Amino acid sequence: MGSRTRGLPRPVPRSTRITKPPAMNIEHLAQMVNDIANYFAAEPDHAVGVNSVADHLRKFWDPVMRRQIIEHLDAGGEGLEPMAKEAVRELARQQAATAG
Known about the structure:
Elements: H1 26-40, H2 46-60, H3 63-74, H4 82-99
Helix pairs in contact: 1-2, 1-4, 2-4, 3-4
């Protein structure tokens, strides 16, 4: 068993290398934001609920997903409920403020 490569990591096959994540279905993203907004709609203070949704998206969504939902809102936001639209608008505002 005198293999000279023992202990060295094997090269990762091209088919299993990490690549840029594919774009998600925008209808699915919109439904997820709506579900999150519906959860936080129980918050007595509407502004706190909107900020909580935006904060959730910022903390737990991949940057690609955040970009896609912001672009979707910019294109009209079809399928997004009012509170979800407010939250995505707030997320976009926060991201613009931290970008420069």
